[in-house]
TrEMBL record:
Domain Enoyl-CoA hydratase/isomerase: 3-64
Protein's UniProt name: 3-hydroxyisobutyryl-CoA hydrolase
One example GO MF annotation: 3-hydroxyisobutyryl-CoA hydrolase activity
Reactions catalysed, as given in the entry: 3-hydroxy-2-methylpropanoyl-CoA + H2O = 3-hydroxy-2-methylpropanoate + CoA + H(+)
Keywords linked to the UniProt accession: Hydrolase
Pathway as given in its UniProt record: Amino-acid degradation; L-valine degradation
Amino acid sequence: MESKSEKWIISAIKSMKSASPTSLKLTLRSIREGRMQELRQCIIREYTIVCHVLQGTISNDLYEWEPAKLELISEDMIHRCFKFEHGNDDWEHLQLPARPNKIKNNIMHSESKL
């Protein structure tokens, strides 16, 4: 009989096997980078990734998963999705408004209590 955690692991693996190989690699790198970044940096990074996906930086086919296997997706392909494209007239860099210091201080004060 499988334990609850074993069932979760089996379900997670099954889900990953049915997912886009490109999205798996993009997500893994994004999570790894995001662990060391502030929310502002994460939002800008995610915006950049989405722009690349919609522009077809890796593939123009969002439904037929090209490349179809993890091993066919190079680190260079993934790396390109994390860079802002200067000189591309169809793409504006995400500009987030600055947060007032009062809000920042309240957040930092709340986090220090945790």
